[in-house]
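Field log, afternoon session.

UNIT: design team B
ACTIVITY: writing a sequence onto a fixed backbone
BACKBONE:
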């Protein structure tokens, strides 16, 4: 991910950065608790937080139970969440979904727009228009985060985005020129995982995994409190993990891989092939829940495959919790029983499978992830 630095922001370093981050993620915190968390003496903490309070980055939170004795600055410290706002945009193959969030990723406005054309110039213009609409609904944004399903290079170039047919598109530069704002770009699964890490179901866990199902299959892993990344992150490698030797064929010719078993389009296609009726994904799930024979079979097959995939992730990544996201995440609820059975069967009998949490399946959850990447850039000075 890459960005143009937000105007007026001087990135914190060292212990000041650590203190501010603790308060952002876990505040309000008493000075005693904050000193314990950052392993600092009360005197050192007071000296360090004074300039942060003077700058307005930290504030003393109202707390009726706080100790108000003279000379004892014991009011809890917090950030002013609505002191900065961030735009997040998720680009799909045919639409852009956007949100405005506070510094703590609370959504205060949302909007969406169809893409007139998948050509990079047209998409950049549509996204810039969406950003303008969003900032008209809420205070001016400090920075903009954009996520896309594909391989995003450190300089903000989208090396490959199969759903858009893109190769080597300088997305960050194009959007910064059109919006006049600081812009950061990231892979969509990485962005969603970061949002889960800082402000979602992964908060407080040093190790967890996010598995997404929808138009594709994605995986994000946090270990030792950091997102795992590398030169091939964003290529969707988990999508071709083998799950069912006799399953359908994916777009790359693999039989029974995660993409072939779990994507919304594959599930729709399997039902249509057996019934002759073309049902959208949500209708397939509704029919399966109602007991319709073919949808129930296809959804259960997908649920078992998802259970196997989660077991493989559990055995390799050792997560404390498994988070299911993406527009197809409801699959896990409709196929809950068979999914749980396969997950249980796929791990060692002495190991307890981690809890499985299902996120909201809406595209605006992806957009919130993009906003969190912008927040991280702002706070961490990346």
């Amino acid at each position: 991910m890459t960005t143009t630095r937000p105007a007026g922001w001087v990135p914190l370093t060292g212990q000041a950065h650590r203190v501010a981050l603790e308060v952002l993620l876990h505040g309000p915190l008493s000075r005693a608790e904050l000193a314990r968390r950052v392993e600092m003496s009360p005197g050192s903490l007071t000296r360090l937080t004074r300039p942060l309070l003077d700058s307005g980055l930290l504030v003393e939170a109202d707390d009726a139970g706080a100790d108000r004795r003279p000379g004892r600055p014991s009011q809890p410290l917090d950030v002013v969440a609505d002191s900065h706002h961030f735009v997040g945009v998720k680009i799909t193959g045919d639409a852009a979904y956007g949100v405005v969030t506070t510094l703590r990723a609370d959504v205060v406005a949302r909007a969406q727009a169809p893409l007139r054309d998948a050509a990079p110039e047209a998409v950049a213009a549509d996204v810039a228009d969406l950003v303008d609409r969003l900032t008209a609904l809420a205070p001016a944004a400090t920075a903009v985060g954009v996520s896309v399903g594909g391989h995003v290079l450190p300089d903000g170039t989208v090396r490959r985005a199969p759903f858009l047919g893109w190769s080597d598109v300088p997305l960050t530069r194009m959007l910064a020129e059109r919006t006049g704002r600081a812009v950061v770009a990231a892979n969509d699964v990485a962005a969603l995982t970061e949002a889960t890490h800082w402000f979602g179901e992964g908060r407080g866990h040093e190790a967890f995994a996010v598995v997404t199902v929808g138009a594709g299959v994605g995986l994000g892993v946090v270990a030792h409190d950091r997102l795992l990344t590398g030169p091939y992150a964003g290529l969707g490698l988990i999508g071709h993990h083998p799950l069912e030797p006799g399953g359908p064929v994916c777009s790359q010719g693999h039989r029974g891989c995660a993409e072939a078993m779990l994507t919304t389009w594959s599930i729709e296609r399997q039902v249509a092939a057996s019934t002759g009726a073309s049902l959208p994904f949500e209708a397939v799930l509704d029919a399966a829940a109602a007991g319709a024979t073919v949808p129930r079979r296809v959804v259960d097959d997908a649920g078992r495959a998802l259970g196997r995939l989660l077991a493989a992730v559990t055995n390799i990544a050792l997560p404390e919790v498994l988070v299911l996201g993406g527009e197809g995440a409801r699959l896990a609820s409709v196929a809950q029983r068979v999914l749980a059975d396969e997950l249980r069967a796929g791990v060692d009998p002495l190991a307890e499978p981690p809890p499985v949490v299902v996120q909201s399946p809406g595209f605006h959850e992806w957009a919130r992830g993009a906003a969190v990447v912008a927040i991280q850039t702002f706070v961490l000075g990346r």
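LOG NOTE: The chain has three domains: 14-81, 84-194+364-380, 203-358.
NEXT ACTIVITY: expression trials, pending approval
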